[in-house]
Amino acid sequence: MQAMINSLHVDPELPDPPTTVGPMRRHPTYRHFECADGLSISLGALGPKFETNLLRSLGLDEILIDPRVQGVTAKVALPENLPRCSELVTGAFASPVDPSCLI
Fold first, then answer.
1. What pLDDT, on a 0 to 100 scale, did the predictor assign at position 42?
2. How far is Cα 16 from Cα 44, in angstroms, rounded to an integer?
3. Residue 50 falls within a domain, yes or no?
């Protein structure tokens, strides 16, 4: 703990660091989405297990194999990846679902 004391230092005179990157917030798998039927769903898939499962469930393996992400789901929230990943996830939720594939 003592070796990491600098990481615990907070200057109370400085403003809090921003936690948003654009209008979609910091993470494309942790927010609300409008679905094809006009209703919204709130989603909180954080952590490699849940992010990977969500992306695969939405048919977005292309995000995981993208050279900029390389299977590391934490990279979807990087400022350079966030717009594209958010657009793909948002689009997947907004797309109609084939009822025959529902369980």
1. 86
2. 23
3. yes
Distance of CA 101 to the CA centre of its chain: 24
Evaluate whether 60 touches 88 at the Cβ level (below 8 Å). yes
CA dihedral 57, 58, 64, 67 (to 10 degrees): 160
Q: How far apart are CA 4 and CA 11, in angstroms?
A: 16
Quote the CA–CA distance of 52 and 72 in Å, as a whole number: 9
Whole-structure pTM value: 0.71
Q: In this structure, is residue 72 part of a structural domain?
A: yes
User: Which tokens belong to 84?
Assistant: 């594209």
Domain that holds residue 51: 46-94
Overall domain count for the chain: 1
pLDDT tens, 38-49? 898 888 888 899
In a domain, 85, yes or no: yes
Classified as helix, coil or strand, 33 is strand
